[in-house]
């Protein structure tokens, strides 16, 4: 408060000195007060005006004024807080006016008209500025206050960023291209290495002898091609002609064209939006007139086009006739009908409508109408088909609406029906059918697709039927054993059935075999006992069974050199299946007999070479009924038909050395018992390995937990089941289908050290990665050229050459290349390889 | 000029029934030709077509720039484009299939795949092209009409062939020191003979120059050249010895006792030995270290061979099995039951595709060793004691004192040998000489070198094994070979395994990662239905949406599987058709078929 009071004092003193009051009132409304203090003051007493005004007045006597200013400053300095001088707000001229002469009306607001006044007189001012200034005079808008520094800076930054980013993005393409390039050669502007085209080499050649020089001077003076296929300099210049400027010009042209087009579009759009009916009426009329005029002309000059035009008109007429337009059946017309009783205008409007209709549906009578009549006559004849046809065309996408669905013989009936349907209307005129055919030709693609689809569907159906049948087949076979010399064996789920069936099957097999015996040329002694052996009762012990199965196979093999038929039959019993099903047999004395019989067999064999020379493939008979074999069968492996080889020279010396005598004896013994322990041992070994690889069932049951425990008490089955942990079965063994093979499943850890065990970055799966490193890189496997291509360094720099940053010209050059020569360049590059 | 040249262009291409389309510049060209014939034609006519010609020329130039096919001379290329390469030749050099394109690949991956595809294709093409540079053809033996080639005697052949070849048929009578084993060096120039009773001889057999001859005064089980002809290993009665080409004993290796047979793996510098104590041992001859000693637990081992493709050692056993071994595993990689009697000999062909075995059951069997499938089985009246396969796939089998050579035992069933020859006494060792049509046979009476036309590979790789190399070249090769030595850890059944990602470790790592992260980064995202307003996110509709997605996934898998099935079915049908065609010959039993 103290401050305010001080101010009051000062003001009072000022008033004393100042005398003029009228002017204050004048100026008062113009000045805007910012300070709350001032306002506060002015409220207190209305007559007191702000100090500024007073200052303005007091400017006349400068001395006083200055003193007063000083005083004021001193006072304000006393306050300490308020540093800002109020005087600063005033017009600059006032403050500056200390030593200058005061002009009249100096304190007044300057009007623009005052300044412009002289403009009329001076001729130097251009008309444009004059106009601008005049406009300025008329405008009453206040000028927007300038933006704050921060804002303007932000805008500037924005603009600058945009500019810079466009500048930078121009480099984006080339940078990307370089990043992805297979090889970069620095410095970049170097000519590409490799063989240069002949033309360029020739141009590099210089004329040396005076004669040559003279000739070349002549040629070049006349701008003639120096080398035969090379372009003339003029041509070359034209080749190079598409410079930046030209491109710019061209672009500008295009832009202009586009702009014009858009103007036109806008114009037409605007016109279309005009609702005035009268306007449209007038316009339409004008158009029609013009059209008629044109048409008349056209009849004279270009009758063909005129005819076309005519047909168009005809079509329009047809459309008009077909539609209900202008027939006074619309909503508007109905309302008019109601009004027509009272309103003359409505009646008239309706009349007009009808007239329009008449006019539109009227036939055009021109000089060409004769031809037209003829055409019409033809049209009338064809019309029904034509209509039909059009409909079909509409439905071309709908396969059901088309004549033929597919040409599959099985579906002929259907298609025939469809044909009948289509022929109904089509019978009227042949041309229509022809047309249809054409259409079909066009639509072959769709049809073929459909047909394919259909055939596939059918195939699937057939397949399903087959599958339904297939399970029936074995049953039938089992019933009619003697007819089908084959035992079908199903694996897996049907095991129990199979076991039951095994009993009756054995005699059946015998039955099959017996009629065949006389037909085979060779003796079959080993075969018969084997069959008998099969009849033996079955005892559940797997090892034994396997042995017998194998023994059987061996027995077969002994005779097999002579009789492939038997081999073929025995092949069908899948041993691996047998192993799993647990086909149970016992080895008996007869079996042993068999073994003993088997021995002489090989000895006899060389003496009696095979009479039949059949290929190893199975007889077609067996082939038909047999199911697919899975993998290789042990029996087949061991009893594969052997070819006896005739040797022209008989060995005179046994291959026995005295040192090896003992060994050979052992070998002889081995040979004697061949096929016995060898096979069984091997099978045992294999089974052992398989078992070892199988995951063990972990039993975690603890007796006595949750129930009674004791010496004779076993944990309940329920509990045992709950605590037995079964691990997932391992993946199938590699030798699953190879009975005579054991493949070790142990992991080779030594190579895993050298293998890649994580996929490198861009690869998504193993196959991709493996395929990329599949091909060898070295010189041993590749040609020199390939090796060089494979081991190309990513960046090549020339020794001693300065690598400068890319210049803008390069960018431009690159763009030009891309736009003009990229395709041809790529082509030629491709062809080179 | 230009116009005429253009006229030539058209007939140069493959003949077309259609005439070339008429061009406006064709006419003047004809006119010009006429003018040429009648030189004194009117000037006006001459000038008029000239303009046309110029135009045509310009056009031609444009074309030139377009395809750059024509030359300065103006003549067209009669054989445009790169030379054609036959399909089977391309197939021969195929290393891998083209990769399938997956949508939404990373651009880097796309680039990489495209580049590698391109490179491999280029490599394949160029290799196929350069295959042309293998100029030599293999020899063959052709009998007269109704004359078996196996009845042609060695004398006949040596009479018929040129002098140098004839000199390759010879006998060495060495009756004193018992049956001989032999080994040819990898280049085929040098021969190493080891007699049972201690006699060792190194011979440059083509010049018949004796390099050294010693008697070790001990029984010898086997002899083998090491990587070059400078050193060889001899399996003597007790230990394994290494001598140099002058007969100086370099090493006596006490770790290798009772060795019966040896094989040298040239690219690994490994000497594999099998002993009577059923040990299979590997010796790295470049550093002199024992790499592995495996107790095979199968008794006395005296049948051995190597697979030249993957350096796996095949052993034959007395229980009719053949086992495959690598130094990295203590148990057999594969165990095959091949014979009912003991296995007497095993041989594997150069490409590592076929294995031939012979056993006590007097059978000779051919296996596809890649799939372990039996291909052919033959019965030899006396059984084969020794087998050897030549570079071009000829098989020699010794039965007693007879040496038989068979051709193509794996593809076509053979009934009689290609060639046969009787030597003085029982055959003990046998080997085809590399790059020569020669079979060396060691027997009780010494050594016989036989001529077998078509046995050796006619084109040798000069960088790998050059029969004509000088000492300097040999030294250089040795250094290179040592630098390129393959580590014994890399011996696997499938040599391409090295190029595969180690799945087990990969999975292990992935599991660890999942554990560390708490979620599976590679797992497919679970579908979470979006929340929808206006009551459309009721429990029922959410469930329905979930099921929709699940069904879609299921549909995809089902479609995939059904497609696979169809494919398999189709293949099967085709195969059946083929089989039916093959076995369409009617048999007598067909009449009972119903």
From TrEMBL, chain A:
<feature type="compositionally biased region" description="Basic residues">
    <location>
        <begin position="1"/>
        <end position="15"/>
    </location>
</feature>
<feature type="region of interest" description="Disordered">
    <location>
        <begin position="1"/>
        <end position="20"/>
    </location>
</feature>
<feature type="region of interest" description="Disordered">
    <location>
        <begin position="367"/>
        <end position="633"/>
    </location>
</feature>
<keyword id="KW-0539">Nucleus</keyword>
<feature type="compositionally biased region" description="Basic and acidic residues">
    <location>
        <begin position="448"/>
        <end position="472"/>
    </location>
</feature>
<feature type="region of interest" description="Disordered">
    <location>
        <begin position="30"/>
        <end position="68"/>
    </location>
</feature>
<protein>
    <recommendedName>
        <fullName>U3 small nucleolar RNA-associated protein 14 homolog A</fullName>
    </recommendedName>
</protein>
<feature type="compositionally biased region" description="Acidic residues">
    <location>
        <begin position="50"/>
        <end position="59"/>
    </location>
</feature>
<dbReference type="InterPro" id="IPR006709">
    <property type="entry name" value="SSU_processome_Utp14"/>
</dbReference>
<feature type="compositionally biased region" description="Acidic residues">
    <location>
        <begin position="432"/>
        <end position="447"/>
    </location>
</feature>
<feature type="compositionally biased region" description="Basic residues">
    <location>
        <begin position="716"/>
        <end position="725"/>
    </location>
</feature>
<dbReference type="Pfam" id="PF04615">
    <property type="entry name" value="Utp14"/>
</dbReference>
<feature type="compositionally biased region" description="Basic and acidic residues">
    <location>
        <begin position="808"/>
        <end position="817"/>
    </location>
</feature>
<feature type="compositionally biased region" description="Acidic residues">
    <location>
        <begin position="371"/>
        <end position="383"/>
    </location>
</feature>
<feature type="region of interest" description="Disordered">
    <location>
        <begin position="704"/>
        <end position="737"/>
    </location>
</feature>
<dbReference type="GO" id="GO:0005730">
    <property type="term" value="C:nucleolus"/>
</dbReference>
<feature type="region of interest" description="Disordered">
    <location>
        <begin position="808"/>
        <end position="833"/>
    </location>
</feature>
<feature type="compositionally biased region" description="Basic and acidic residues">
    <location>
        <begin position="404"/>
        <end position="415"/>
    </location>
</feature>
<comment type="similarity">
    <text>Belongs to the UTP14 family.</text>
</comment>
<feature type="compositionally biased region" description="Acidic residues">
    <location>
        <begin position="475"/>
        <end position="547"/>
    </location>
</feature>
<keyword id="KW-0597">Phosphoprotein</keyword>
TrEMBL record, chain B:
<feature type="repeat" description="WD">
    <location>
        <begin position="336"/>
        <end position="377"/>
    </location>
</feature>
<feature type="compositionally biased region" description="Basic residues">
    <location>
        <begin position="92"/>
        <end position="101"/>
    </location>
</feature>
<protein>
    <recommendedName>
        <fullName>WD repeat-containing protein 46</fullName>
    </recommendedName>
</protein>
<keyword id="KW-0597">Phosphoprotein</keyword>
<keyword id="KW-0539">Nucleus</keyword>
<feature type="compositionally biased region" description="Basic and acidic residues">
    <location>
        <begin position="549"/>
        <end position="580"/>
    </location>
</feature>
<dbReference type="InterPro" id="IPR036322">
    <property type="entry name" value="WD40_repeat_dom_sf"/>
</dbReference>
<dbReference type="InterPro" id="IPR012952">
    <property type="entry name" value="BING4_C_dom"/>
</dbReference>
<feature type="compositionally biased region" description="Basic and acidic residues">
    <location>
        <begin position="60"/>
        <end position="70"/>
    </location>
</feature>
<keyword id="KW-0853">WD repeat</keyword>
<comment type="function">
    <text>Scaffold component of the nucleolar structure. Required for localization of DDX21 and NCL to the granular compartment of the nucleolus. Part of the small subunit (SSU) processome, first precursor of the small eukaryotic ribosomal subunit. During the assembly of the SSU processome in the nucleolus, many ribosome biogenesis factors, an RNA chaperone and ribosomal proteins associate with the nascent pre-rRNA and work in concert to generate RNA folding, modifications, rearrangements and cleavage as well as targeted degradation of pre-ribosomal RNA by the RNA exosome.</text>
</comment>
<feature type="domain" description="BING4 C-terminal">
    <location>
        <begin position="417"/>
        <end position="495"/>
    </location>
</feature>
<dbReference type="GO" id="GO:0005730">
    <property type="term" value="C:nucleolus"/>
</dbReference>
<dbReference type="InterPro" id="IPR015943">
    <property type="entry name" value="WD40/YVTN_repeat-like_dom_sf"/>
</dbReference>
<dbReference type="Pfam" id="PF00400">
    <property type="entry name" value="WD40"/>
</dbReference>
<dbReference type="InterPro" id="IPR040315">
    <property type="entry name" value="WDR46/Utp7"/>
</dbReference>
<keyword id="KW-0677">Repeat</keyword>
<feature type="region of interest" description="Disordered">
    <location>
        <begin position="532"/>
        <end position="581"/>
    </location>
</feature>
<feature type="region of interest" description="Disordered">
    <location>
        <begin position="1"/>
        <end position="101"/>
    </location>
</feature>
<dbReference type="Pfam" id="PF08149">
    <property type="entry name" value="BING4CT"/>
</dbReference>
<dbReference type="InterPro" id="IPR001680">
    <property type="entry name" value="WD40_rpt"/>
</dbReference>
<feature type="compositionally biased region" description="Basic and acidic residues">
    <location>
        <begin position="13"/>
        <end position="53"/>
    </location>
</feature>
């Amino acid at each position: 408060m103290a401050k305010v009071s001080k101010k009051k004092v000062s003001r009072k003193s000022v008033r004393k000195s100042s005398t003029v009051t009228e002017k204050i009132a004048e100026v008062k409304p113009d000045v805007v007060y910012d300070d709350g203090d001032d306002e506060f003051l002015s409220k207190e007493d209305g007559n007191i005006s702000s100090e500024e005004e007073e200052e303005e007045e007091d400017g006349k006597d400068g001395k006083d004024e200055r003193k007063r200013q000083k005083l004021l400053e001193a006072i304000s300095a006393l306050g300490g807080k308020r540093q800002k001088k109020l005087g600063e707000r005033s017009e600059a001229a006032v403050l500056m006016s200390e030593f200058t002469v005061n002009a009249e009306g100096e304190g007044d607001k300057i009007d623009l008209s005052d300044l412009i006044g002289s403009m009329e007189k001076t001729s130097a001012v251009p008309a444009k500025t004059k106009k601008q200034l005049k406009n300025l005079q008329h405008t009453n808008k206040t000028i927007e206050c300038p933006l704050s520094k921060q804002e303007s800076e932000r805008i500037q930054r924005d603009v600058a960023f945009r500019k810079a980013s466009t500048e930078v993005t121009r480099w984006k393409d080339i940078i990307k291209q370089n990043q992805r390039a297979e090889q970069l050669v620095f410095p970049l502007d170097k000519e590409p290495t490799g063989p240069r085209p002949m033309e360029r080499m020739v141009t590099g050649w210089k004329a040396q002898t005076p004669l040559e020089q003279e000739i070349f001077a002549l040629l070049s003076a006349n701008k003639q091609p120096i080398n035969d296929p090379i372009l003339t300099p003029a041509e070359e210049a034209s080749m190079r002609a598409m410079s930046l400027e030209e491109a710019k010009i061209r672009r500008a042209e295009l832009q202009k064209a586009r702009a014009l087009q858009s103007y036109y579009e806008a114009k037409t759009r605007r016109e279309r939006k005009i609702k005035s009916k009268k306007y449209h009426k007038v316009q339409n009329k004008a158009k029609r007139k013009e059209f008629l005029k044109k048409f008349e002309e056209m009849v004279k000059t270009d009758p063909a086009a005129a005819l076309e035009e005519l047909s168009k008109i005809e079509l329009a007429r047809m459309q008009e006739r077909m539609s209900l337009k202008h027939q006074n059946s619309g909503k508007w017309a109905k309302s008019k009908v109601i009004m027509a009783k009272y309103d003359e205008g409505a009646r008239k409007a309706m009349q007009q409508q009808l007239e329009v209709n008449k006019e539109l549906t009227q036939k055009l009578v021109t000089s060409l109408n004769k031809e037209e009549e003829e055409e019409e006559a033809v049209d009338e004849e064809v019309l029904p088909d034509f209509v039909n046809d059009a409909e079909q065309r509409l439905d071309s996408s709908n396969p059901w609406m088309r004549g033929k669905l597919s040409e599959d013989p099985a579906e002929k009936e259907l298609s025939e029906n469809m044909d009948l349907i289509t022929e109904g209307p089509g019978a009227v005129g042949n041309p229509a059918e022809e047309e249809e055919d054409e259409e079909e030709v066009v639509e072959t693609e769709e049809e073929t697709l459909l047909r394919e689809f259909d055939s596939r569907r059918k195939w699937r159906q057939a397949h399903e039927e087959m599958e339904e049948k297939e399970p029936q087949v074995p049953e039938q076979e089992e019933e009619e054993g003697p007819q089908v010399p084959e035992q079908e064996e199903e694996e897996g789920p049907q095991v129990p059935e199979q076991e039951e069936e095994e009993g009756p099957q054995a005699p059946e097999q015998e039955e099959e075999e017996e009629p065949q015996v006389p037909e085979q040329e060779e003796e079959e002694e080993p075969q018969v006992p084997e069959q008998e052996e099969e009849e033996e009762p079955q005892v559940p012990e797997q090892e034994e069974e396997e042995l017998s199965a194998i023994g059987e196979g061996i027995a077969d093999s002994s005779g097999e050199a002579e009789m492939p038929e038997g081999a073929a039959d025995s092949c069908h019993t899948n041993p691996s299946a047998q192993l799993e099903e647990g086909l149970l047999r016992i080895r008996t004395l007869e079996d042993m007999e068999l073994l003993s019989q088997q021995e002489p067999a090989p000895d006899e064999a060389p003496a009696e070479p095979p009479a039949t020379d059949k290929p190893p493939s199975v007889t077609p008979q067996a082939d038909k009924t047999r199911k697919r074999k899975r993998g290789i069968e042990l029996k087949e492996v061991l009893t594969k038909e052997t070819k006896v080889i005739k040797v022209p020279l008989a060995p005179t010396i046994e291959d026995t050395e005295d040192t090896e005598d003992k060994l050979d004896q052992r070998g002889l013994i081995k040979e004697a018992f061949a096929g016995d322990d060898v096979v069984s041992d091997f099978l045992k070994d294999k089974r052992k390995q398989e078992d070892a690889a199988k995951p063990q069932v972990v039993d975690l049951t603890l007796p006595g937990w949750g129930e009674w425990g004791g010496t004779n008490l076993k944990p309940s089955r329920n509990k045992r089941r709950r605590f037995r942990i079964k691990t997932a079965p391992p993946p199938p063994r590699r030798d699953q289908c190879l009975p005579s093979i054991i493949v070790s499943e142990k992991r080779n850890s030594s190579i895993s050290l050298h293998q890649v065990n994580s996929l490198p970055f861009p690869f998504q799966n193993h196959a991709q990665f493996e395929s990329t490193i599949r091909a060898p890189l070295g010189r041993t496997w590749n040609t020199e050229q390939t090796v060089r291509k494979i081991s190309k360094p990513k960046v090549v720099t020339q020794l001693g050459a300065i690598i400068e940053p890319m210049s803008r010209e390069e960018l431009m050059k690159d763009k030009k290349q891309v736009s003009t020569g990229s395709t041809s360049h790529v082509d030629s590059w491709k062809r080179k390889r | 000029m230009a116009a005429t040249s253009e006229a030539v262009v058209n007939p140069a291409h493959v003949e077309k029934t259609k005439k070339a389309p008429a061009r406006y510049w064709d006419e003047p060209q004809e006119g010009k030709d006429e003018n040429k014939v009648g030189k004194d034609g009117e000037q006006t006519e001459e000038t008029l077509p000239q303009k046309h010609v110029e135009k045509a020329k310009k056009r031609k130039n444009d074309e030139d720039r377009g395809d750059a096919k024509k030359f300065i001379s103006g003549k067209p290329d009669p054989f445009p484009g790169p030379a054609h390469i036959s399909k089977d030749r391309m197939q021969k050099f195929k290393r891998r299939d083209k990769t399938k394109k997956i949508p939404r690949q990373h651009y880097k991956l796309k680039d990489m795949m495209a580049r590698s595809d391109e490179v491999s294709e280029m490599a394949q093409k160029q290799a196929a092209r350069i295959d042309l540079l293998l100029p030599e053809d293999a020899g063959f033996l052709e009998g007269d009409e109704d004359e078996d080639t196996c009845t042609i005697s060695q004398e006949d052949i040596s009479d018929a062939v040129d002098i140098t070849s004839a000199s390759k048929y010879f006998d060495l009578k060495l009756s004193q020191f018992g049956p001989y084993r032999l080994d040819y060096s990898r280049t085929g120039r040098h021969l190493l003979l080891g007699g049972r009773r201690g006699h060792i001889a190194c011979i440059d057999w083509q010049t018949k120059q004796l390099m050294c001859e010693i008697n070790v005064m001990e029984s010898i089980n086997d002899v083998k050249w090491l990587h070059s002809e400078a050193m060889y290993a001899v399996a003597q009665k007790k230990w394994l010895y290494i001598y140099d080409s002058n007969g100086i004993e370099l090493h006596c290796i006490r770790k290798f006792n009772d060795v019966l047979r040896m094989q040298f793996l040239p690219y690994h510098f490994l000497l594999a030995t099998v002993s009577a104590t059923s040990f299979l041992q590997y010796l790295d001859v470049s550093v002199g270290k024992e790499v592995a000693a495996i107790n095979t637990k199968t008794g006395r081992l005296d049948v051995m061979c190597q697979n030249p493709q993957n350096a796996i050692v095949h052993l034959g056993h007395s229980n009719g099995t053949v086992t495959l071994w690598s130094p990295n595993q203590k148990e057999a990689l594969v165990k095959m039951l091949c014979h009912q009697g003991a296995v007497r000999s095993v041989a594997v062909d150069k490409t590592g595709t076929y294995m031939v075995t012979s056993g006590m059951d007097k059978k000779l069997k051919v296996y596809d060793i890649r799939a372990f499938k039996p291909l052919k089985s033959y019965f030899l009246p006396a059984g084969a004691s020794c087998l050897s396969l030549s570079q071009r796939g000829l098989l020699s089998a010794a039965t007693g004192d007879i040496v038989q050579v068979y051709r193509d035992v794996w593809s076509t069933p053979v009934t009689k040998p290609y060639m046969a020859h009787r030597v003085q006494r029982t055959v003990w060792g046998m080997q085809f000489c590399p790059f020569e049509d020669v079979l060396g046979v060691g027997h009780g009476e010494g050594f016989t070198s036989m001529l077998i036309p078509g046995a050796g590979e006619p084109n040798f790789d000069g960088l790998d094994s050059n029969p004509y190399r000088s000492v300097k070249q040999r030294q250089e090769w040795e250094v290179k070979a040592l630098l390129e030595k393959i580590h014994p850890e890399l011996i696997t059944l499938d040599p391409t395994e090295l190029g595969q990602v180690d799945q087990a470790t990969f999975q292990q790592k992935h599991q660890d990662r999942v554990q560390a992260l708490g979620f599976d980064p590679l797992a497919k995202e679970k579908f979470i239905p979006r929340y929808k307003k206006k009551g459309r996110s009721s429990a029922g509709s959410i469930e329905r949406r979930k099921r929709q997605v699940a069904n879609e996934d299921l549909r995809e898998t089902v479609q995939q599987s059904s497609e696979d099935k169809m494919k398999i079915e189709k293949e099967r049908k085709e195969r059946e058709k083929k089989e039916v065609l093959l076995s369409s010959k009617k048999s007598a039993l067909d009449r009972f078929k119903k």
